[in-house]
Amino acid sequence: MAYQQLEHPLISHKLTMLRDKNTGSADFRLLVKELASILAYEASRQFSLDSIEVETPLEKTKGETLSGKKVGIVAILRAGLAMVDGALQQFPNAKVGHIGLCRDEKTLAPVQYYLRYIDKLDLRNLLIVDPMLATGGTASAAIDLLKKKGAQNIILLNIISSQEGAKNLIHKHPDIEGFTCAIDPGLDKNGYIVPGLGDAGDRIFGTA
Question: What letters, b where the CB count within 10 A reaches 16 and e where it falls short, cover 26-40?
Fold first, then answer.
């Protein structure tokens, strides 16, 4: 698996604003959306192209278009919802599925509470979106569910990850690609990424 941290001045700028505890929910949501769009753009580098002929106002010319595989977006609830619109900016015709997974506060293990698949998983380039990759358990569980349904082309998109989570994910699913905006050094005793940005869901939706 290639799990890559993206390096770009604009990403660094937006990520710093996202980390700031004084950033309100409205701005936080917008930043998540913008970073998700950048991540989705980067993920498309893995997509194949077909050559076609088009006619400009002046003459015919050859161009390239994304090949036959359709794009699917799978949001891990609830925080992943904030990344969907950003990914849809790049792929407006993508279908969107949802996987509800929450973390058991004692064991930190993922617990499934909702599942809504999209069709033709085996024929799609799937983008799983979730702002945080902490222990890697939730992402691994989501990937397991999709693989059992036949998904083959999976790309994971995170905004902030921990070194432990990235390592665990690579060990569990060495066959998939992943992109993140930052890999932070560790987790605290409650399983939160440090320095991180706090609870992404709470900051997105203004809950506590």
Answer: eebbbbbbbbbbbbb
